């Protein structure tokens, strides 16, 4: 009778071959397509029902998977919700990182960031997701803290790194780039974020108004943090 190999005894030869992965055969709980299918279903359920009313059974029906399958990937509704929030945060962070990489100057990058952030507010489920987060903040405080924490997986952390680079090249003079990143987001997107969160601002807003707010915030930010020689090179 063949001897059973435990997880501790496995060698690299026991791992799935690249050919198996190419054919779509993954270890239990590691198929990215199946995982994405579950998350897509969970997103529709949470957006429609909210966190408390939604159940894992609702997600299995919406995602088209069995109950056994969903628990292979996510052990609880809390874990599933956290993964959904992390995915959305990661997708936006990737967008911001790419946007900033295309910038030709600190001013251009900041303007691009402001526009990307406004687009996120008005053209995604960001506001609905934040309302759900606020509803569970007392029960899941660490998730909410992780959503906002400065890190490479957070858009604010990416902005901080962008500011660090321009401090290093002498374009900006900032003693605390973490604080400055928060300030820039407040100056250019805070009005939109809070206005949408509490329904003070309508779902649709003119591009001209978005541009006006971003340019005003950018002007204030650069007045405080642009190096004097750099600031002097920009008229007005």
From TrEMBL:
Gene3D superfamilies: Tetracycline Repressor, domain 2
UniProt keyword Transcription regulation, yes or no: yes
Keyword Transcription carried by entry: yes
InterPro entries, per the entry: DNA-bd_HTH_TetR-type_CS (IPR023772), Homeodomain-like_sf (IPR009057), HTH-type_TetR-like_transc_reg (IPR050109), HTH_TetR (IPR001647), TetR_C_Proteobacteria (IPR039536)
DNA-binding region positions on the chain: 55-74
Keyword annotations of the record: DNA-binding, Transcription, Transcription regulation
Domain HTH tetR-type: 32-92
Entry's Gene Ontology molecular function annotations: DNA-binding transcription factor activity; transcription cis-regulatory region binding
Transmembrane segments: none
Protein name listed in UniProt: TetR/AcrR family transcriptional regulator
Taxonomic lineage: Bacteria, Pseudomonadati, Pseudomonadota, Alphaproteobacteria, Hyphomicrobiales
């Amino acid at each position: 009778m063949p001897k059973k190999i435990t997880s501790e005894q496995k060698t690299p030869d026991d791992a799935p071959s690249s050919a198996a992965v190419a054919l779509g055969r993954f270890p239990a709980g590691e198929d990215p397509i199946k995982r994405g299918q579950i998350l897509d279903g969970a997103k529709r359920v949470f957006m429609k029902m909210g966190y408390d009313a939604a159940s894992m059974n609702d997600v299995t029906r919406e995602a088209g998977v069995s109950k056994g399958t969903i628990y292979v990937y996510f052990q609880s509704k809390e874990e599933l919700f956290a993964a959904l929030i992390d995915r959305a945060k990661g997708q936006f962070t990737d967008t911001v990182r790419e946007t900033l990489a295309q910038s030709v100057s600190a001013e251009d990058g900041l303007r691009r960031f402001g526009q990307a952030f406004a687009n996120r507010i008005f053209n995604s489920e960001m506001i609905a997701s934040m309302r759900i987060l606020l509803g569970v903040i007392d029960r899941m405080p660490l998730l909410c803290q992780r959503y906002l924490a400065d890190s490479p997986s957070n858009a604010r952390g990416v902005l901080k790194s962008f500011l660090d680079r321009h401090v290093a090249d002498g374009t900006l003079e900032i003693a605390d780039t973490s604080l400055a990143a928060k300030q820039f987001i407040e100056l250019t997107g805070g009005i939109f974020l809070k206005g949408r969160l509490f329904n003070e601002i309508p779902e649709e807003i003119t591009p001209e108004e978005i541009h006006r707010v971003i340019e005003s915030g950018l002007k204030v930010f650069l007045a405080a943090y642009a190096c004097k020689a750099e600031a002097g090179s920009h008229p007005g």
